[in-house]
Write a structure and sequence with these properties.
Blueprint: H1 5-10, E1 21-28, E2 34-36, E3 44-47, H2 48-60, E4 65-70, H3 88-97, E5 106-111, E6 125-128, E7 131-134, H4 136-153, E8 157-160, H5 167-177, E9 186-191, H6 198-203, H7 223-236, E10 240-244, H8 250-259, E11 264-268, H9 270-281, H10 287-301, E12 305-308, H11 311-318
Parallel strand pairs: 1-3, 1-4, 1-12, 4-5, 5-8, 9-10, 10-11, 11-12
Antiparallel strand pairs: 2-3, 6-7
Helix pairs in contact: 2-3, 3-4, 4-5, 7-8, 8-10
The protein binds ligand PBG.
Length: about 325
Amino acid sequence: MRRTESLRALVRETTLDPGDLIYPLFICPGEGVRKPISSMPGIFNLSVDEAVKEAEEAASLGLGGLLLFGLPEAKDDEGTGAWDKDGIVQQGLRALKASSAAKKLVLIADVCLCEYTSHGHCGLIHKGPHGWEVDNDPSVALIAKAAASLAEAGADIVAPSDMMDGRVAAIREALDQSGQTQTPILSYASKFSSAFYGPFREAADSAPQFGDRRGYQMDGANAREAMREIELDLAEGADMILMKPAMPYLDIIRMARDRFEVPIGAYQVSGEYSMLHAAFEKGWLERDRAMLESLLGIKRAGADFIVTYFAKDAAKLLG
Ligand code: PBG
């Protein structure tokens, strides 16, 4: 059954489609800005006008959607830029919604404070008896406010990535109270504290100024805990879940697929992209095949859709 391509195609169990792929965009202030991210070849910080051009290309390639991050003009202790009516992602969403690309793409807004806080943590922080800690409950209130503001600006889906407890319920309530009853929540329910987020922190300018995220993101050793996090988020009203990172956690994606009847996305994160790119640049891996194989593995593990910086390149190959 493996002799010819048509035989192989007939018995293929897993397929990749451009519509399964979500492309992350990093929106920054200015006009005509396309600032390369050194650790992620081919990925840029884009001003709103450039993000619209990128969205048009994504739509013409048949991608499923975009995941939006923001680099605000200014940061502060609370991350007020995250829920500012004229915040950078809010501006981007309005422009994208007005473009022809919006009809073909699902616009997903990442919801977190880390791009907006001066200290770079995903929530408010305070100095407790054991050193700096995140302040879970007050952070949740701000994160819910940010989600409602992003939905109001036009997000089709809001995706909280902060890992605070109780945020899904708070976001659902904030959405409903502001009349965004139809906006689904894609919860990064299973998010591990990972070295593979390194290049993203350059892209989103969100590296913690001190400490790390181990106090709120999950320990990579724990699979059962990941299932419990997902259960809790679903009970609070999450409509879909996002698993992250992808390649070092394929077993967790499979476990979730076997247990939960909701759509599951997986995020092939910045470090996964950068390490593959480094090998392509050295000529150590065959670019096109390795890229598609990495995505196929994630799909086979059980992901319905994949957030990936390879989205455009893979879609070009998939045709
Ligand atoms: C924000 C957020 C991060 C990523 C997605 N949302 C960074 C982090 O948690 O440090 C990482 C994505 C990537 O590495 O591509 N909380």
